[in-house]
Write a structure and sequence with these properties.
Mean pLDDT: 84
Oligomer: single chain
Low-confidence stretches: none
Structural class: alpha+beta
CATH class: Alpha Beta
Keywords: Monooxygenase, Oxidoreductase
Organism: Thermobacillus xylanilyticus
Shape: globular
Number of strands: 2
Radius of gyration: 12 Å
Protein name: Antibiotic biosynthesis monooxygenase protein yqjZ
Pfam family, one: ABM
GO molecular function: monooxygenase activity
Number of helices: 3
Number of domains: 1
Length: about 60
């Protein structure tokens, strides 16, 4: 079973929406070919720390 079958794509989409509302968000790149990965870009270490503390992101 691929990650898509476990809600990965849906969760990744939700995380992009949440991240884009965070101060300091610059963008994302995603690749899905069986497995998936999404990388987010931020303007500062402080912005990254704030994103890492987002409650929904912690659950994801």
């Amino acid at each position: 079973m691929g990650y898509a079958n476990h809600g990965y794509a849906e969760m990744a989409e939700e995380m992009v929406k949440l991240a884009s509302a965070q101060p300091g968000f610059l963008g994302v790149e995603s690749v899905r070919d069986g497995l998936g990965i999404t990388v987010s870009y931020w303007e500062s270490l402080e912005a990254i720390q704030n994103w890492k503390q987002n409650e929904r992101h912690l659950i994801a």
